[in-house]
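debug: dumping io for the single-chain case to check the tokenizer round-trip. Nothing else runs in this session.
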Amino acid sequence: KVNRNVALKEELEQLFCDQEENFEIAAKSLKVLSHPARLRILCALRSGEQTVQNLEYFTGIKQTTLSQHLSLLKNCGVLVSRREATFSFYRISNKKIIELFDLIKWEWLL
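debug: decoded output
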């Protein structure tokens, strides 16, 4: 049993070697997703890009609070935005985040 534990420890050290920065990024990203309002925003964006006005309507989150959540999600790389005239549009930044959200949705939201 001791040899198995030593072997497992060596395997884990190899696996996690030089990964501390990636763990920090992953933890930060998962933490930002751990708020009910942000999950509502992701749900509303699941089907594609939306304006802030549409997100306010779909989520029921007041515009000032919504803007704070959108800013946080954008700063963590979960969302990207663009401006067109006086409108701001947001969308989920990559397919992997949509896949992660789908796992969360199917496990706990349905």
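debug: round-trip ok. The mean pLDDT is 87.
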